[in-house]
Specification:
Elements lengths: L2 E3 L6 E3 L2 E3 L12 H13 L4 E3 L8 H10 L7 E6 L1 E3 L5 E4 L3 H15 L4 E6 L8 H13 L3 E7 L3 H10 L2 E7 L11 H8 L2 E5 L31 H21 L3 H10 L5 E6 L3 H8 L8 H10 L12 H5 L4
Parallel strand pairs: 3-4, 3-12, 4-5, 5-8, 8-9, 9-10, 10-11, 11-12
Antiparallel strand pairs: 1-2, 6-7
């Protein structure tokens, strides 16, 4: 396993992390025993970086991760997130970054995770009603109290990142980044590099699309939220599948899977980029880890840029309500 440091003063983590969201919600039925087995296999394979959030499964995901690491806490750099508020029925109620909420959310996450300290604590989405200075100020108090070690933001715009970093060092920005979502390259990634902030790429496999296993929405389980995702619909899907076919040709030439190609491409974008590939199955985890063995030359990267340039994918990456919560 290779390891990378998040930010100038942040934690050192495995070059590929494990996103745990799909173990609890959004991507079909859950199987806790299988998921815990996958987490244990990840740790045994050298993965140290686990990512969860309080909203995943309405707290279930934090509880699941907590159970999985209870007897191996020292092997884990544990990241979780707060800010997205949901009702008792699971509906999304908006974003809350008020200082009192920050503290309450952290205390609740610590209880569910069964730990004394969170290694990396992110604001999941930026609250437009609360100045970022107030939110990060409250997060900084948690650091002083020893409840949190490092701070992060998710889906924040450059100016927000700069303002936040003036209050307390930000170790990592987590935003969507993959071969079909490259918009962060224009300003956000540059801002992180100017400030010495690590970049954590979520959905590095395009919500499973960059594995080549999804050819139609019928390939997705009933209840899978991707059935309603714009990029998986109608003409958008047909357009995006054409990109997949061309990328599969590149992967074939490199004698690797499409998922391995997608992860290797991200790893090649800089030592400050750490993809968190989500899966609840060991066989996919093992496939993802083989990306560390894929070497991409400058010619390979130039060819991939031609096949999947910035803006190549068609369709919003979230339905309209979800996009409204993303700072651009």
């Amino acid at each position: 396993m290779d390891y990378r440091k998040l930010g100038q003063q942040g934690p050192t983590v495995s070059a590929i992390g494990l996103g745990c969201m799909g173990m609890s919600e959004f991507y079909g039925a859950r199987d806790d025993a299988q998921s815990i087995h996958t987490i244990h296999h990840a740790l045994a394979s050298g993965i140290t970086f686990l990512d969860t959030a309080d909203m995943y499964g309405m707290g279930h995901n934090e509880e699941l991760v907590g159970r999985a690491i209870r007897d191996r806490r020292d092997q884990v750099v544990l990241a979780t997130k707060f800010g997205n508020v949901r009702g008792d029925d699971g509906s999304f109620k908006g974003v809350d970054g008020r200082p009192a909420y920050v503290r309450a959310a952290c205390e609740a996450s610590l209880r569910r995770l069964g730990v004394d300290v969170i290694d990396l604590y992110y604001q999941h989405r930026v609250d437009p009603r609360t100045p970022i200075e107030e939110t990060v100020g409250a997060m900084a108090e948690l650091v002083k109290e020893g409840k949190v070690r490092f701070l992060g933001l998710s889906e924040a715009a450059p100016q927000t990142i700069r303002r936040a970093n003036l209050v307390h060092p930000i170790s990592a920005l987590q935003s969507e980044y993959s071969l079909w979502t490259r918009e962060v390259e224009s300003q956000i990634l540059k801002t992180c590099r100017q400030l010495g902030i690590g970049f954590v790429a979520y959905s590095p496999l395009g919500r499973g699309f960059l594995t080549g296993r999804i050819k139609t929405v019928e390939d997705l389980e009933e209840g899978d939220y991707r059935r309603d995702s714009p990029r998986f619909q109608g003409d958008n899907l047909a357009h995006n599948l054409a990109i997949i076919r061309r990328l599969e040709e590149v992967a074939s030439d490199k004698r690797c899977s499409l998922a391995q190609l997608a992860l290797a491409w991200l790893l090649a974008q800089g030592k400050d980029v750490v993809p968190i590939a989500g899966t609840k199955r060991v066989r996919y985890l093992e496939d993802n880890l083989q990306a560390l063995e894929v070497q991409l030359s400058k010619e390979d990267l130039a060819h991939i840029d031609q096949v999947a340039p910035v803006g190549a994918a068609r369709g919003l990456r979230y339905p309209e309500p979800g996009m409204r919560a993303v700072e651009l």
